[in-house]
Amino acid sequence: MINIVLITGTTGKEDGKLGEEDEDFGWNDEEPPPDDNSQDGGIPLVRKEEFTSNQLYAEAYQSYIQALAYPARLVVRPDSSTVVDESKISFFCRADGNPLPSVIWRVNGKSISDHNRISIKSLSTGLSTLRFERVSVDDNATVVSCSADNGVANPVVAEASLTVIPRDKVPTGFPQIELHPSLKSVEQGKTAYVSCRVRGDPRAKVLWLRDLIPLDIRQDGRYSVSTIGNPGALMIQHAREEDQGKYECIARNSLGVAHSKAANLYVKG
Predict the structure, then answer these.
(1) Are 262 and 181 in contact (CB under 8 A)?
(2) CA-closest candidate to residue 195, choices 173, 175, 210, 178
(3) Which InterPro entries does the annotation name (predicted)?
(4) Which of 12, 84, 162, 256 has the smallest number of CB atoms closer than 10 Å to its CB?
């Protein structure tokens, strides 16, 4: 009789939030060195004939795969935001789990139907953005939620509220974009500078988006954001083709959020 013992383990990671403490993302986890006998996720490679010739092994292997599963969780949750009437606003959500969960957005508990004004962009990494292209005072007190579900346990849900203030009632110190990004073209391998200058009191923190997705500044050392001189400007060293896209900067402090206009960066090969 063959005894097969499967030992599994899990690692925990603290939930993260965007905007309140950092102006960039720090999600990168160190990956273990590759194992010649494993595929992505540390799962041993199994030849097809082993499944067909050894049913006991096949059943144990399937149990091992199931043991690797863990429930969905939200490692980035949408932040409640205050914006000025006729502005745009973005909410961010990132889900984790095994299998990787799907992210579903809702506005006031309903599925998204106003696709002319609200757009969603999601990546295979579990990161997703919901964008209101133009808000009005009628959107005040809107509740935005993202949920993650991978079928392992109950779905997890996070909510954020949207506050819209009239332009004639903007408080002193509310974030402002003084210099918006502009169209840029840079040669591959050179350094690209994308303009953005922000102001606010308390001092506004800056987040950059490329094609609606937040840039993970801490994961890619080629990216940096200026904090003096021209606070908010983005520098991209050794520009690559994948850096090409539509860039926006977001200024945020305790009073609210302001989005810049968007501008394209082109990288010439």
Answers:
(1) yes
(2) 178
(3) Cell_adhesion_signaling, Ig-like_dom, Ig-like_dom_sf, Ig-like_fold, Ig_I-set, Ig_sub, Ig_sub2
(4) 12
Domain assignment of residue 204, yes or no: yes
For residue 134, the domain's CATH number is 2.60.40.10
Q: How much helix, strand and coil, in percent to the nearest 5, is found in the chain?
A: 10, 40, 50
Fill in the amino acid letter for 26: G
Q: Per mean pLDDT, which range of 25-39, 52-66, 105-119 is the poorest?
A: 25-39
pTM recorded for the entire structure = 0.75
Q: Span 237-249, mean pLDDT? A: 96
Cβ atoms 194, 180 nearer than 8 A: no
Q: What is the domain extent for residue 91?
A: 71-165
pLDDT number for residue 65: 57
Q: Write the single-letter amino acid at 5.
A: V
Question: Distance (Å, rounded) from C-alpha 78 to C-alpha 94?
Answer: 9
- Would 16 be classed as within a structural domain? no
* Strand 213-214 relative to strand 263-268, pairing: unpaired
Q: Are residues 231 and 188 in the same domain?
A: yes
Asked if omega into 44 is within 30° of 0 (cis), the reply is no
Tell me the per-residue pLDDT of 131-159, one tens digit each, with 9 for 90 and over: 999 999 999 999 999 999 998 888 999 99
Closest CA to 253 of 83, 135, 25, 134: 83
Dist CA 24 CA 51 (whole Å): 46
